[in-house]
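User: I want to check something. If I give you two sequences, will you return the structure for each one separately, not as a complex?

Assistant: Yes, each is folded on its own. Here is the first sequence with its structure:
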Amino acid sequence: MITKDTRFLIIGLGLIGGSYAMGLKKNGYHVEAIEINQLSIDYALKNGIIDKGSTFDLDMISQADVIIVSLYPNMSVDWIATYQKYFKPGALISDVASVKTGVVKPIQDIIRDDVEFLSSHPMAGKEVSGVKFADDTIFHSANFIILPTEKNTKEAIDSLRQMAQILGFHNISELSVEDHDAMIGFVSHLTHAIAVSLMNTNDNTHLVEYTGDSFRDLTRIAKINENLWSEVFFLNKDNLIKEIDDFTAEVENLKSKLIHNDVEGLKELFIQSTARRKLFDK
């Protein structure tokens, strides 16, 4: 379990890694960070986000009780494979990747027997990046998902749940890797695909002076990191392709109502969507 003596190490001081560090340090925990950008370390130190930081420090790795790898999915696998030989026996390692296929199994297949990797997903973020935008309050209305496998212990699950509570997550749940990636393919990856596609439908840049809140709300997440999201889409492409097919079929259904002047059928779609959306307002 996590105690006040627990030493946290964040690998990667981006928005999420920086927000983890900020939230943990605010709650009195010792937080260190490894980040390739010295300017990010300097900013985090100056603003009290971390206790110590470095571009590379094996002692930090070997002394950490909990390591949060806040890197792109494939980079997370590579980093753990490279540096696990320095992990403290009994250390708990987790990640923040938004897709788990291609991450959890490769890591658990090679991880040392005396440490434990338990994957998790903080479902929070902003359309900005970098530690300068770190804000632990983004977790307070967000969901935190733990993804245990048969290789994980109850102690590790309890520790990650405790960490999520410390960070103030609104809801904490558990899912299998398969269920997580199917779910995230719909609620996150499909929505990003829709936003990107909407912004790429013709050249709509001349409409910037005329758009209202509906267009801005729908396309907010189209401001997207092309390197990260290309990787995420391909790692979860089977689920995403299925969701795109289902979405396309539903758009065609709506289109059919218009073609056939089916007023009542169109109203039924509106009634159903309204009822389903209200469930998210509770």
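And separately, the second sequence with its own structure:
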Amino acid sequence: MTHEVPLPPRTGLPTSEERLRAALRYAHSDAAVPPGTSRTPDRAMITGLAALALHCFSAAPSLLDLDRIDVLVPDLGGPAARAPLPVAGPAARLVRTRILPEPEEITGLPVAPVARALADAVPGLTDVEQVRRLLTEAVRGGYCEPQAVVRELTRARLLGLPHIADAVDSLLAEGRALAEGRMYEMVLLHGLPDPCWNVELRAPGGLHIGTVDAYWPEHGVALELDARPPRADAVAAWDACARKRERLEEFGITVVHVTPDKLRDALAQQATVVRTALMTSGEREPACDVAVLPR
């Protein structure tokens, strides 16, 4: 015969996992639901600095150092959901949103994607350098492209804050440098002919046509990195890009656009697109004899 001996009650501080699960339980509880609305279960996820810590960001504080856990929950309507500040709960802060992203599972917990977690984390940070480090790590670490981060910051109306706007400028510069590095890698690894990198094209007589990231003069093919940020001036940037492409095509130049995310996720496929443009150049009217100058 065996006897089960009850364990003594546990003492001490809760572990990080216990805090995370407690915050999720609170988000699913009746106390977290605005008056006059019904509870929507199992649609909460860890966000903010806690999510970044779970994504293993070195620039994020450890879970043990956080005073509270941010939890992203659906906006169910009602007065409380429209309050200007998130609803506070025991060891948790609820961040309500009408656009709930698809969570990622980390250690069995639902966690917001990096771009969304950043948008929920940076408003409460006053250290400009920490904001810059978090945004930079998101790109350098390969978690997401700058455009995804800017999209979430724009949606949260945070780009008007000077310290965030400055950090975003550095983020975009970092993202472009990484994407350019992948373009060089694409040419090298996939055996493409060496182009003229970062050049300005001018028509006979000196008329400026445009600047391109790479150009193959013997084929009349230009490569352009499409890294335009989704910001308030996106429409103007798109119009300028379209006009530039039209000018290049007027001189018989074929323009191939690549994006940072496709260079990261489908480098071989992008190399095939460029190779096809180069191989079929003989089937098109030859490009005008343009001057190729350093940018």
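Because they were folded independently, the notes below concern the second chain alone. The longest helix spans residues 162-189. Residues 1-10, 79-85 have pLDDT under 50 and may be disordered.
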